[in-house]
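Before the break, one more example. Copy the sequence into your notebook; we will annotate it together after we see the structure.
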Amino acid sequence: MHFSVKFRRLGLAISVLGLLSLAALRGGSASSLASVGGLTNLAGFSGKLLAVFTLPGDSAVRELAGTPAAGVSLIVMKPFSAKVDGRIGSYRMGNWPYEGQTPRSPNYAPPKGFIEVTPENFGTRVSEHFTVGQFLTKDQGNVWPKYLVLDRRLLDKLELTIAELQHMGYPVKNFSIMSGFRTPQYNVRGVGSGGRSAVSRHQYGDASDVYPDDNGDGRMDDLNRDGRVDLKDAKILASAAEAVERKNPQLVGGVGIYPANSAHGPFVHIDARGTRARWNG
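Here is what the structure looks like once it is written out:
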């Protein structure tokens, strides 16, 4: 049987026509979708993912069937080979740790591709609570298009952490992304004693520094309602991320707690690197 399946490529409709196999849905849950062309859990364990990232010519595009997760977008990335001399067009990327070498583990291999972001698709939703533009590196403001690495596991973990906070009795509506993806040329500026890691997970698109800010004041909300915004609130957020990992070990990664300073309030680093890591900044 042939199906015509329409997806949005960062806001632009594209059609895929081919012999497609239907994804099985077990127990009526979007998180239990069977694997289709190597793609699993199209809506994630959270059921709130709205995008799948793939490369041009990926066999999964031809095999991907109509999914019960309505509105899931197919985002076709630029291949890593599009980066020449540390740039894609005018956008400066730099070079990844271990680029051209054997990485110390597969988790540190350079990304396979980049999401292209323009002013027109900046606000495209990649999950219920997050847009693609929220994860961009915070530099080169006037350069377009920009490019981004973003891991669906991070999106899933963030969505589940919001849900976990709500389950714990904290009515969080959203997270502010203080720092999402960092290009290597941006990350290297802060590398040093007490600063960023040279192999920061932010460069691999599976890490973000976040805090709930439903009142819009640019700082973490007073989660425990004690009249102060401090590490106690950050620890509540970190405990929610911990609970997500216990319930979903496939999303294991880093959780780091950072105090306020003169430049920002407290925040929590959350990543989905695939191995457990904990620290206090």
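The chain has four helices and 14 strands. The longest strand covers residues 2-9. Try to locate both features in your own notes.
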